[in-house]
UniProtKB/TrEMBL annotation:
The keyword tRNA processing does not apply. Transmembrane segments: none annotated. The lineage of its organism: Eukaryota, Metazoa, Chordata, Craniata, Vertebrata. This is C2H2-type domain-containing protein. Belongs to the krueppel C2H2-type zinc-finger protein family. May be involved in transcriptional regulation.
C-alpha cells in the first residue's frame, strides 16, 4: 500500500506548520525537524549533530576521506555525486541558472541567489558594531576589519 503512493502520487500526510504534503509519515517526521530544529543524529568523531541520518552519513566522509565519485574529464574525486555534477560544469561550460531580471546565466544556483540581490537591493548581512548592511557575506567580513576584528 505505501509503495503504491510512489505510482499514484498520493500524499496524505500534511505538515501543520507549512502545509507541505508527504507520501509517508516518516517523511513528514523528518521534515518536521526543519521547524523544530531537532538534530538527533550525532557524529561520533566530532560531535556535530544532524537532523537527517543521511546528512550524518554524508558528513562521515569528511572524516574517512572517502571520495567515490570521479570526474572522467580531469580525474578529480568527490565525496558526493552532486558535487561531481556541479564540478563537471567547469568542463562543459553549462550555466543552467538564469536571472529572470536581466537574462544572465550562472553555473551555480548560489551564484544566482547572490546576483539577484543586485536587482532586489537585499542586504542580509548586517554589522553588529555599526549597523551597516551588505549584500554579500564576504563584504561584511572585510568591513568588520575596520572595527579591529571585533565580531560582537
Amino acid at each position: 500500500m505505501k509503495h503504491q503512493r510512489v505510482h499514484t502520487g498520493e500524499r496524505p500526510y500534511k505538515c501543520s506548520e507549512c502545509g507541505k504534503f508527504y507520501s509517508h509519515k516518516s517523511s513528514l517526521i523528518n521534515h518536521w525537524r526543519v521547524h523544530t530544529g531537532e538534530r538527533p543524529y550525532e557524529c561520533s568523531e566530532c560531535g556535530k549533530f544532524f537532523s537527517q541520518s543521511s546528512s550524518l552519513m554524508q558528513h562521515r566522509k569528511v572524516h574517512t576521506g572517502e571520495k567515490p565519485f570521479k570526474c572522467n574529464e580531469c580525474g578529480r574525486f568527490f565525496s558526493e555525486n552532486s558535487s561531481l555534477v556541479k564540478h563537471q560544469r567547469v568542463h562543459t561550460g553549462a550555466r543552467p541558472y538564469e536571472c529572470r531580471e536581466c537574462g544572465k546565466f550562472f553555473r551555480h544556483s548560489s551564484s544566482l541567489v547572490k546576483h539577484r540581490r543586485i536587482h532586489t537591493g537585499e542586504m542580509p548581512y548586517e554589522c553588529n558594531n555599526c549597523g551597516k548592511s551588505f549584500s554579500q557575506r564576504f563584504n561584511l567580513l572585510q568591513h568588520q576589519k575596520v572595527h579591529g576584528g571585533e565580531k560582537s
